Amino acid sequence: MTKLENSGKVKKILVVRNDRIGDLILSLPAIASLRKGYPDAHIGVLIREYTQEILWNNPDIDEIIIDRGQNVFELARQIAEKRFDLAIVLYPNWRNGWLCWLSGIPWRIGTGYKPVGILFNQKAYIHRTKIVHHEMDYCLKLVEKAGVQSVREKIQLQIKKEDKEYAQSLLEKYQVRNTIPLIGIHPGSGGSALNWPEHLYGRLIDLLSEKYGVKVVLTGSKEEVERILPQTYSQPVNLAGQTTLGQLMAVYSFYHLFIGPSTGPMHIAAGLGKPVIALFPPIRTQSSAKWGPQGEGHTVLMPDEIKCQYKRCRLQKCPFYNCMAQITPEQVLMAVVNVVRRVTS
Residue 186 in contact with residue 196, Cβ under 8 Å? Predict the structure, then answer.
């Protein structure tokens, strides 16, 4: 089949988004649009195991399939047994292209601008690398190829009751549960984008403590957070390594404000409706135009007057490195004051 002519025959749909947390979150409006377009279809989503808490209790999804990195032929056999009629590949790489082809899925929607497009028979000609649209909109344009009307709906993340209870007890343990404002910083990006220098995170934490007389909550990997702690004297609360992804989401649900770089946890906070102050590099492929927080009430800070045309940071080879240091802790504090005044008044 080369055309999606008989969409009424589509009973089972596979959405492929087996990459990172933020990518999956930004795909949720596309999946919601798919559900509205195919209200009676069975919708399965192929994801990486560590991201599955993002989809907990999602009303638009019937099945979660875990990609554990197994041999593509083995995973294709598993998916073939489920007899999907349509696949929408939101993460287009060769492995995912072959996976859907080998699974015998009749209709396969994906990008037409990458070599892997030869394995798709329904192509969306959209350039991700030209940064014309936000990642959320790229996903919406792909599901439009399935004949549905895409809608930029508000992202909805669900939190388990037991995770909420754990988060509350954890914050009470550190005596910050009733802190106003409760401000969280996730200083690590996992290498997904050029980050703010660690000593500036430390200075910001101290400024926030001086301004509000509160302890800032830090999350992230132990290695990331332990590099920040020596840069500060105000003894922030260190929750590194103390939460699962679901529990981390629950912790964020108590925040008045989240501060961090372009990373999955930033999208979690935004998806929970929390105001975000996001620190973004000027690198074209890492820009807020493609990866910025979605929703209302967010602030994006970037280095001024730097037009970077590279896909990856050249680090010390660049005359502007590290341009992120142009964002000062005082600038971030000013943005914090504006947000806190609004959310706590």
Answer: no
Q: 330 Cβ partners below 8 Å, 6+ apart? A: 207
Start-to-end C-alpha separation, the chain: 58
For the segment 71-120, what is each residue's pLDDT rounded down to a tens digit? Answer: 999 999 999 999 999 999 999 999 999 999 999 999 999 999 999 999 99
Say how far apart CA 218 and CA 83 lie, in whole Å.
Answer: 45
For residue 262 the two structure tokens come to: 């372009």
Whether the CB-CB separation of 290 and 218 falls below 8 Å is answered with no
Q: Are residues 215 and 242 in contact, defined by beta-carbon separation less than 8 angstroms? A: no
Please report the pLDDT score of residue 278 as a whole number: 96
Task: Give the closest residue to 325 by CA, choosing from 339, 311, 312, 306.
Answer: 306
Long-range pairs for 74-80: beta carbons < 8 A, 24 or more residues apart: 75/99, 76/102, 76/103, 79/14, 79/46, 79/103, 79/105, 80/104
Candidates 48, 258, 245, 270; CA nearest to 156 is 270
Q: Which ranges of the chain would DSSP assign to H, the alpha helix?
A: 21-37, 72-80, 94-102, 135-144, 161-173, 198-212, 222-228, 245-252, 264-271, 288-291, 329-344
User: In b/e form, how buried is each residue of 201-225, taking b as 16+ CB within 10 angstroms?
Assistant: bbbbbbbbbeebebbbbbbbeeebb
Q: pLDDT digits over 17-56, tens only?
A: 999 999 999 999 999 999 999 999 999 999 999 999 999 9
| Of 97-101, 178-182, 204-208, 301-305, the least confident | 301-305
By CB atoms closer than 10 A (0-12, 13-18, 19+), residue 146 is: buried
pLDDT digits (tens, 9 = 90+) for 154-174: 898 999 999 999 999 999 999
Among 183, 156, 151, 196, smallest CA distance to 286 is for 196
